[in-house]
Amino acid sequence: MIEIEGLSKIYAGAGRPALKDVSLSVPKGAIYGILGRSGAGKSTLIRCLNLLERPTTGRIIVNGSDITQLDKAGLREHRLRTGMIFQHFNLLHSRTVADNVAVPLEIAGVPKVLRQARVDELLYLVGLSEKAQAFPSQLSGGQKQRVGIARALAARPDVLLCDEATSALDPETTASVLQLLADINQQLKLTIVLITHELEVVKTLCDHAALLENGEVVESGRIADLLIAPWSRLRQALLHDPQAERDFLARHGFDGRPLCVVA
Ligand SMILES: Nc1ncnc2c1ncn2[C@@H]1O[C@H](COP(=O)(O)OP(=O)(O)OP(=O)(O)O)[C@@H](O)[C@H]1O
């Protein structure tokens, strides 16, 4: 569904490229985690997917068309079809919860009466119906992120981009937001691309992952495949915690016996 081909990004005045020849394939309906240390290029990569950053070279094919070649109208349409949520939520503080969720619908020119119905539906989906008239300052971090998710889904996107969406949340709230993302992926058949430096997020949620280092992809693919690749650094990292290991392996189709590794 998303094919990233030979993507590079060099910021003006930067000593080294932020992304170097990145190629990745994100299947429709996947939950794809991009992992890497600070400065590895994760944010740059995800921001290229809705052209908040322009790649220096390379192509990004979404549903068959190269988004780097879109004209202004095409780009506007693409951005409506690509929801995004952020670490610090990016809500408008002078607007109510309902009015925040309505923003993409206003941009898309949806009439007010239809906007209202869609906002109600979205707030129900994220469990915040009773907070419609609250302001962001009256919400917890987890509730703010739920508003962010509702807003990102308003224009019925095909893809949801998540930029460190749970980094500002405590572990319990993180777990409930990750569960909501998993439910949305299932219910809406939405493709999710998320960046994180937390292995736990990848463990809990993702079926695909890529590891970035110094702007380059060092490994990528289905987690079930990475788990049987002896060379995989993600495999080593993901299986590090013995307690969570059994559940995690079961989720990826292994039956609890030790993995048979062929050297
Ligand atoms: N606007 C910019 N101008 C110049 N250099 C930038 C800009 N944004 C990012 N960089 C550089 O590009 C590289 C990749 O940054 P990026 O923010 O994509 O990494 P990251 O993996 O998301 O890091 P973090 O986890 O700390 O957010 C870094 O060396 C960073 O300093």
From TrEMBL:
Transport found in the keyword field: yes
The ABC transporter domain covers 2-239
Q: Which GO terms describe its cellular component?
A: plasma membrane
Q: Which GO terms describe its biological process?
A: amino acid transport
Is ATP-binding set as a keyword in this record?
yes
Specify the protein's topology with respect to the membrane.
Peripheral membrane protein
Q: Which Gene3D superfamilies match?
A: P-loop containing nucleotide triphosphate hydrolases
Task: List membrane-spanning regions.
Answer: none
Put simply, this protein is called: Cell division ATP-binding protein FtsE
